[in-house]
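Quick check before the chapter quiz. The format below is the same one you will see on the exam, so make sure you can read both the input and the output lines.
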Amino acid sequence: MRASTGSDAITRRNFTLAAAAGVAAASLGGANLAFGQPAASGPHRVIIDTDPGVDDAFALLLAMRSPELKIEGITPVAGNVPLELTLPNALRMVEIANRPDIPVAVGARTPLMRRLVTATYAHGENGLGGAVFPEPKLKPIADSAAVFIRRIVRQYPGEVTIITLGPQTNLATALASDPDLARMIKGVTMMGGSLSGGNVTPAAEFNVYVDPEAARMVFQSGIPVTMVGLDVTRKTALTDAHVKTLEAAGTAVSLAAAKIARNDIDLNRKEGNTSGPNMHDSLALASFLDPSLLTWKPYYVDVEVQGELTAGETLGYRPSESGLRGSAPTLAGTKTSVELRDKFVPNANVAVDVNSARFFELLIGRLARKA
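Here is the expected output.
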């Protein structure tokens, strides 16, 4: 486990240049965006970028039980807990699912420009709600996450979707180091953001809050983005009945999921919550498998990176809202923040509602399946 170094490193200047290039790409190519929903055929090549995390663990197990996916690799990142925990947690899920064919590449230890903030209050000190599993025997591959993402995308240009379930540091690092990469990525399906307030501050959802500069780079990259945020994930509370179904199935995957879920439900109740936990990341993964689980609307989405109180906030502008601008100039100068184009085009397909019952039929059904 190591921090990104050498070709993986991203400086403030590199970030600024990469973000500017992304804005240009979005303005030139945005009208042709075909949002990253899977076609009828498969399997679909994906890289899963994740910070396991309880709901990440469920999402990984769901992905590895889904024949629609060709999982090219898993790229853990620091987020819910530090990298020293997200990496072995990802390796544990690969072992539990008996998928040693899936490579795991070590991701970023810290956000691009900020100190790491974790969510152990929600995921427990080990990231899995306190559920204890043996140390993984599998080892990560030699490539770092950013190098691995670049290599796989260039090997299969136009075929790979990146499913991001944590802070988007790994993907942003890859984009910053390879100016041509964005146009080769089929799409990004992300769990992140919100149009209706945050869960770590009043403004910001956790994954974007941890690394808003990375999220902004992804939104402005010109890659078709599918955003599954708190607007829908807050409607996916895991229940005791779900856990009992998993326990009754008696398979290695279902019992591991039940163990994690039971511990996290208990942790959630100790924190005074009467429902949940919510399956944020699992819903994002499920949305890629079956987009009809959700209702979608196109938005132009940007990320606040300057605000002292609002850093990490995702702002969504609908195409009908013409003439919207950035902040007004101050008395000290005439500079305004970047104006949105009068005829801006959406850069994201945003989930605005979900059929929770159908989602849990998919999630619990596949995790509890015997074969």
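If your answer matched, good. The domain at 6-320+335-367 is CATH 3.90.245.10 (Inosine-uridine Nucleoside N-ribohydrolase; Chain A).
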